[in-house]
Write a structure and sequence with these properties.
It is a single chain. This protein is mostly helical. The longest helix has 28 residues, at about 160-185. The protein contains eight helices and two strands. About 45% of the residues are buried. A two-stranded antiparallel sheet has the order 1-2. Helix 5 runs parallel beside helix 7 (about 160-185).
Length: about 220
């Protein structure tokens, strides 16, 4: 069994959302991924580790991001409203994502790092293959280069950057925890359902079919 680097975020089975929670209907991040990934921008080192990619987190914004996601998921899947409310009543999912990202050398207050983790995690689930540190670092450089040259893609304000990052982190945190636990249990059917949900979510929201993308030390490339 592969030990995917972003999966083990320590959530109990009872804390996970059911698979029918309507992730594919959500659009919290906008067209950033199309610009960065679909064009396969070359990987270069970011000019700075600070602005324009880094934000200062606000607990108030964190709570509002969770609440907005909770409301949208409940509207998409009212039959599981209680489970959705319980799962997103605190910041456990986000903190799990933060710890997983930090274990792999990233920072949750850097929007490029969060986007890289989101895509690497998604790619790992879709391909059922461990990315490894070198390929993750390649995607980090890819996003850092693209977003440094076009900072308008992630917004001008601290709040906009935080909303982008935490919206992506929460979604991937839920998917990652579910995928990891399905593998731990040996539940192939459950894992396949999550694979399909992740692939469909990225395809419907971003127009990118991760099944058709390779993950290299230079980043994500079509083919």
């Amino acid at each position: 069994m592969c030990k995917f680097p972003f999966f083990a975020i320590g959530l109990s089975a009872g804390s996970l959302l059911p698979l029918g929670s309507g992730f594919a209907s959500l659009h919290p991040v906008g067209p950033v991924q199309q610009s960065v990934v679909a064009r396969s921008l070359p990987a270069k080192e970011s000019a700075s580790s600070a602005n324009p990619l880094v934000y200062s987190p606000s607990p108030t914004i964190s709570a509002s991001v969770r609440q907005e996601l909770q409301q949208r998921l409940m509207a998409a899947d009212p039959d599981h409203a209680k489970a959705i409310s319980s799962t997103l009543s605190n910041d456990r999912i986000w903190q799990g994502f933060v710890q997983a990202l930090e274990r792999n050398g990233g920072s949750a207050t850097n929007v490029a790092d969060v986007m890289a983790a989101y895509y690497v995690s998604s790619w790992e689930i879709v391909h059922r293959e461990e990315a490894g540190m070198r390929r993750f670092q390649g995607v980090r450089r890819q996003f850092a280069s693209a977003l440094t040259s076009k900072p308008e893609l992630i917004g001008d304000t601290n709040a906009e950057k935080q909303k982008q990052a935490e919206g992506m982190g929460l979604q991937m945190g839920i998917f990652s925890a579910g995928a990891w636990q399905m593998l731990e249990r040996g539940d192939e059917r459950g894992f396949t359902q999550i694979q399909e949900a992740v692939r469909y979510t990225v395809l419907m929201r971003d127009g990118i079919d991760l099944k058709r993308f390779r993950l290299t030390e230079q980043g994500l490339t079509p083919g």
